[in-house]
Amino acid sequence: MRRSVVFSAVFLAFAFGCALGPGPDYAVYDPVESVNRRSYEISEVLDRGVLRPLAVGYRKVMPTFAEAAVENFFSNLRSTESALSGFLQGAPERGFRDAGRFIVNSTLGVGGLLDIATVMGLEPQEEDLGQVLASWGYTRSRYLYVPILGPTTVRDLPHLIVRAGLPRLAMHENYNGWVGAIDLASARAEVLLATDVRDEASLDPYTFTREAFYQRRRDAVFNGEPPVEAGFDLLLEEFDEE
Amino acid sequence: MFRILLTVLAFELAVGSEPEQVVAEFHHELLSSMKSSAPFVERYAVLDHAVGKAFDVLTITRISLGKSWRAQSAEERLGFRALLQELIVATYTSRFSNFNEQRFETVEATEVREGRWVVKTHLVKNDGSVVRLDYYFRDGLIFNVVADGVSDLSLRRSDYASIIGSEGLDGLRRSIGDSIEEYRSSDAP
Asked: What fold does the segment set B2-186 form as a domain?
């Protein structure tokens, strides 16, 4: 019952949010900023009180090789989304690369603990369902700040859900509370440097996080090669008007 | 005639395009700062010169302040320009303070439009991981740095617009001043 309510809520939010907002592609669109800001503030309190200390402690006690093994393990499980997303974007070579990575790392890499595929030249393609929807034309989407899970957009919600659910789906009952806590600590530890830089550099961390999120997503959709002309036009537009 | 042409071509290849050269010199200064054991103040002075030479801080200030720029007097504009230069230099001095076998590589330099260039580079860390650093040029000077797809100038503009909206330009001045102080004190012995 609870599951179907959650599913319906997500479906409705997604269906409602799918209407493209006004403005240029990939630009920030945050019509419910006050709600998102509140969600961000709550998450920050949780992060400072629980998640960040957990990640710092995790990094302190885990030897580097063990930390890398945990990161490899979970990212191997999640690479199936990337493989599928490559195919769905009509980029079979990217899909095959990630599928190959999954097979190599699951077998030669001892269940994903070692990233043998990268050593063999199969670099991760880092595709996801949000990028699939963007490549299908869903280029403008409402911003959401989901407590604990962080920044996203309505378009990227399926990716967020699949990302969170894949290890559970693959490990069944073995994905218990302890494994979940390690997964969470590992994921938070991965972005420690990024959030520290944000805290140091930003004057308004909410705005900073939102802007950085949209730009990272745009970069991901273009596989790290976004059109540079747009970078000039967007920034120098007002400048050139004068 | 042919020999002269070859000489000119060889010289062009050796020197590289001008923006590429500006970035190479700036990277050289960053690496020197990372390798140096000199205190913050000394490294700051060296990088202040390097930033002044490579960056168009006036354009950065103008875009960062957005619409508020127009309402500023010439004196106020220069004041903000000086403040932003201080912030940029303090940020570089603080972040590029430890050398750990990192190296910079230039990937390509492209003239997008007349006078507008993008120089794509990589910061390669000692574990082999790469941070993509793209330098955007306007009239021979850098006005934007994009790190792994995130534009420093866009972040700055959004961040500042939010503070100007809530605390005004005085609030922005105060916040930037606080950030500079934090960078300075974080490097204090």
From this structure: Nuclear Transport Factor 2; Chain: A, (3.10.450)
